[in-house]
Structure of HD domain-containing protein:
Amino acid sequence: MTKPALLKDLADRRALPAHQQMDPGTVEWIAEHRPATFPAMPPRPRYEPLMLAPDASWFASVEQSDSLHGVRHGARVSLLASVLAHEQGLDGNEAAALCVAAAVHDCRRRDDRTDAGHGQRAARWFAGHAVSVTACFGLRLSADCLLQATTAIALHDVPYEHFTLAQVRAYRRAQQVTDLLKAADCLDRYRLPALRWWPDTARLRTPVPDWLHPLAFDLVVRSERARLDGAGHEAALAQACSMIFPAEPEVRDAKPLG
């Protein structure tokens, strides 16, 4: 029987499928390409970040929930967003809105390719389910915070230079949440099977601490290895966090919407 091609090899051939699930060979390729500039033991935040793990049923398809843009990606981006929010001094309500936006920002993807417009689709979905989603995470957000989260979701996949006039106006009402969501999403790009797709902070409008890059890298490798070893989404994420953070993050697992 012919072995399935690795995502890494398919990326090299520019032949990636619509739905892309991690494989052991690609995880090991990522681990082997840990940037030489990263310290062996990077500093870790001493506070307790928040990680929100979206429910698999919130995704457009079963294939997407376990893909490179699925549950684990959303949860990792929410954790990285929580760290960035703390570093930027975001208040509690806006930080919570940012983490919720991060958890669900890719939930309406149809595939793991560029999928133009998936941010707007996710924003529309979130606008219709915002109260239920936040309740699933044990959070209550103001109408303004929900609007900022929705706006950030809608804009997360649009390059700044491609904003329309309407998008520029929306961005101004949710600038910091949008900037931090884009930054957190960027940091989780170490999961992608080609170096050319790894984080490029020149595209961002908010500073990212240098020490956060190796943390994001380790979070990808450890959580993806744990998932491939048979752990569920939440268990894989919790296992990765327990190996990385001195104070283990608070992990909130969502349930299907009622």
In short: The domain at 46-107+116-253 is CATH 1.10.3210 (Hypothetical protein af1432). The chain has a mean pLDDT of 94. The chain has one domain: 46-107+116-253. The beta strands are 50-53, 250-253.
